[in-house]
Design brief:
Elements lengths: L7 E5 L9 E6 L3 E8 L2 E6 L10 H9 L4 E9 L9 H5 L8 E10 L2 E2 L5 H12 L6 E3 L3 E2 L3 H10 L4 E6 L7 E10 L4 H8 L3
Parallel strand pairs: 1-11, 6-8
Antiparallel strand pairs: 2-9, 2-10, 3-4, 3-5, 5-6, 6-7, 10-11
Length: about 200
Amino acid sequence: MRSIFEFCLPTAAKAVPVGPDWLHEVKYDGYRLRVERAGDRVRLFTRNGHDWTGRFPWIVEASRKNRQSHFILDGEAVVLGVDGVSDFNALHSRKCDAEVQLYAFDLLAADGEDLRQLPLSMRKASLARLLGGRPDGIFIAPFELGEIGPDLFRAACGMGLEGIVSKRRDRRYISGRTKEWIKIKNRTHPAMSRVMDSFK
């Protein structure tokens, strides 16, 4: 059975959008994950609908410790190295499952209310309230507004990160592929090699 909370998927682009209507997030190299909590029950779902609840115990524990007992988060499951950069090889190896955290960048529902019709800026504010000061295991994705996007992308590339995702701050959450979320990838990052290898 498919969830009504299907993922919003960014469209690939070569240039970072600019202007006051956009916000920009660094893209972590991990697995996209939806975290659903209903009372004591926490479940983790991948983009393909796989239930990975038993795979990442730290995310489950952090979700249960939150004072809010009903919510749905959208984010990226990552393993962070000592330098704070996501390590996809460590994540993919399955040797670090107990260390995997959630890089949370959206809140789809809270306290039984569907928030997807709200603009992203309001969902971000609600996410900050939900996760502010909460236990390790889930951390909030920082973001920058407006014209700084190209500078942020260059800085991300300089740090060896995967790239950035730019999102329209005034738009609702849309399931499926949308041009209101744009991903710009660092072409020298190992993730690009993995994509090219998949076509060989």
